[in-house]
């Protein structure tokens, strides 16, 4: 189960605007594309996976790929995820990958 959390610009760094479909491709790349096709076929759609974040969005909001401000993957610190951004400010965040 995914957990969305409220964030501020001090918590995360925005990387690039995204869509649910592009988020899914990015997430698959993060895990190395190692999922067998039968598992991939059973995954929920990107919109279903991100439903709680998408439901929090208001007109004009955007989805962005993001990462924690404290980010040192070489020593297993930090995370990557997706954020809801309103007026240029991240307000909700879901971790996709912990280091």
What is the residue-mean pLDDT, rounded to a whole number?
A: 89
Strand count, sense and closure of the main sheet? Answer: 5 strands, antiparallel
The tally of structural domains comes to 1
Shape: flat
Low-confidence stretches: none
The fraction of residues assigned to DSSP E strands is 35-45%
Taking the alpha carbons of the first and last residues, their distance comes to 19 Å
Secondary-structure element string: EEHHHHEEE
Helix- and strand-based class? alpha+beta
Strand order of the largest sheet: 1-5-4-3-2
In short:
With 99 residues, the protein is of the alpha+beta class. The chain has four helices and five strands.
Structure description:
There is one protein chain. By secondary structure, the chain is of the alpha+beta class. The protein has one domain. It is 27% helix and 35% strand. The chain has a five-stranded antiparallel β-sheet. The longest helix is centred in the N-terminal third of the chain and has 11 residues. The radius of gyration is 13 Å and the shape is flat.
